[in-house]
Amino acid sequence: ILLLIRNPKDVATSFYHFSNGMPLLPSYDNWDDFFVAFMTKKMPWGCYFEYLSKWNKYVADENVMAITYEEVKENPALGVKNIAAFFGIPLTEKELQGVVERSSFQSMKKNSQKTHGAFGNVLFRKGGVNDWKNFFTEDQNKKMDKIYEEHVGGTKLGTKLKYEVYCK
């Protein structure tokens, strides 16, 4: 099992745009309203922090590989190599480069109308990291840090995510 995790602040920011672009999901008049809903577990798929907590029970299993969106974004070739090795898939250098190119956010966004139809623009917005800094107030940042620490702060997943997000 490949478990891809992401900075909860970017998850919230991305989900804000996603939910406002999907007619079947609740939409929000502004970021502050969305933030309250996100932090009070009023999301259609539940609480991201509880999701991480549940997965933390399995992260040490040899059949589970946890990787962060941030580490794949920082070094896509290494991320693909590590994933391929985990699944026991040998890749030539040419195959590796092909996977890296076709799985880049830019490539997926470019092809999103073909692969995802009308929802392509909703699913592939920016693909970056740290966009949360354009939305979170200082108080919201502190609140999320507190909840993060309470749910996953000292766990293996929490430590991995914290290192990839806050320490690089």
Task: Explain what the structure shows.
There is one protein chain. The protein has 168 residues and is mostly helical. It has a single domain (2-165), classed as Rossmann fold (3-Layer(aba) Sandwich). 60% of the residues lie in helices and 5% in strands. It has helices spanning 8-21, 31-39, 48-56, 69-74, 76-87, 93-102, 105-110, 112-116, 120-123, 138-152, 156-166; strands at residues 2-5, 65-68. The chain has a two-stranded parallel sheet. This is Sulfotransferase. Residues 1-155 form the Sulfotransferase domain.
Question: What key attributes describe this structure?
Answer:
168 residues; mainly alpha; Rossmann fold; two-stranded parallel sheet; 11 helices; 5% strand; globular
